[in-house]
């Protein structure tokens, strides 16, 4: 299910995590060459992705909302 990014946080390993409108969290790592997301590494890049949708597998599975 597609859900919009509403904010970001960092996990315990200092990796960026997107907070989705559904209440789930999803890692948005920039780890070339496997995952190329250069927008993750700057404040402006992350801000430009607010509102963009990601596929939330947790919604597809009916998982409860994430908490931190």
Number of helices: 2
Shape label: globular
How big is the Rg?
12 Å
Number of strands: 4
**Percent in strands:** 25-35%
Number of domains: 1
Most strands sheet: 4 strands, antiparallel
N-to-C SSE series? EEEHEH
- Can you list the strand order of the major beta sheet? 3-2-1-4
Termini, distance in Å?
Answer: 22 Å
What would the average pLDDT be, to the nearest integer?
95
Helix content: 10-25%
- Unreliable spans are none
Going by helix content, strand content and strand pairing, the class is alpha+beta
Structure, described:
With 68 residues, this protein is α+β, with helices and mostly antiparallel strands. The chain has one domain. It has two helices and four strands; from the N terminus they run E-E-E-H-E-H. It has helices at residues 43-48, 57-61, and strands spanning 2-10, 16-20, 25-27, 53-55. It has a four-stranded antiparallel β-sheet with strand order 3-2-1-4, with no helix packed on it. A hairpin with a 4-residue loop joins strand 2 (16-20) and strand 3. The relative contact order is 0.29. The model has no long low-confidence stretch (mean pLDDT 95).
Secondary structure topology:
Layout: E1 2-10, E2 16-20, E3 25-27, H1 43-48, E4 53-55, H2 57-61
Antiparallel strand pairs: 1-2, 1-4, 2-3
């Amino acid at each position: 299910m597609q859900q919009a990014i509403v904010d970001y946080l960092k996990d315990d390993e200092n990796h960026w995590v997107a907070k989705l409108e559904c209440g789930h969290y999803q890692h948005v790592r920039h780890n070339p060459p496997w995952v190329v997301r250069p927008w993750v590494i700057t404040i402006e890049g992350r801000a430009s992705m607010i509102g963009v949708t990601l596929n939330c597998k947790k919604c597809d599975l009916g998982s409860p909302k994430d908490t931190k």
